[in-house]
Amino acid sequence: MGSSETSPLLVLPADSDTQGPATPEENKEQPADPELKKTLCPYATVGECRYGENCVYLHGDPCDMCGLQVLHPTDTAQRSQHIKSCIEAHEKDMELSFAIQRSKDIVCGICMEVVYEKTNPSERRFGILSNCSHSYCLKCIRRWRSAKQFESKIIKSCPECRITSNFVIPSEYWVEEKEDKHKLIHKYKEAMR
Ligand SMILES: [Zn+2]
Ligand SMILES: [Zn+2]
Ligand SMILES: [Zn+2]
Ligand SMILES: [Zn+2]
What we know:
Elements: E1 61-62, E2 69-71, H1 76-103, E3 126-129, H2 138-145, H3 152-155, E4 168-171, H4 178-192
Antiparallel strand pairs: 1-2, 3-4
The structure holds zinc ion (ZN) (4 copies).
């Protein structure tokens, strides 16, 4: 990639086939390549293409999910591939916004602060206990569990309900639902190996 911005080449009207004097700088003018017309426009697929009808590239059909002109009119494999990945991306987005939604008001049972409102952004993390649903910031629960004056059974128990948890899982989001928690624990154990 050069430093100069590349832009799609305009298709010249059919009668301007005659090659003008070669311009010394960017003389990459291509004859309207019919192959390009089969290639989805790199501009239209990520946003808007200002060349519209005159674009040398193919403008696909708009996708219902993302609204971009990305669906190849005849390549059905490409269409279904895009729709599939678009749905997946959308589901991820939804998951993320749900995760933020359920996390944002959670209070730490030790410092009593809303975890997402901690002054230090690096402290806005949860320490999820594997066996109960009491919420703590990672820093607080780690400090609690590292207190040397207590025996290990006390240290490993939740300060609120006393249930012993073998793990504190660091998490950016609050996780409480059984299945989600199971996944989180599994991922954590995998990463610890
Ligand atoms: Zn275009
Ligand atoms: Zn899409
Ligand atoms: Zn705390
Ligand atoms: Zn608890």
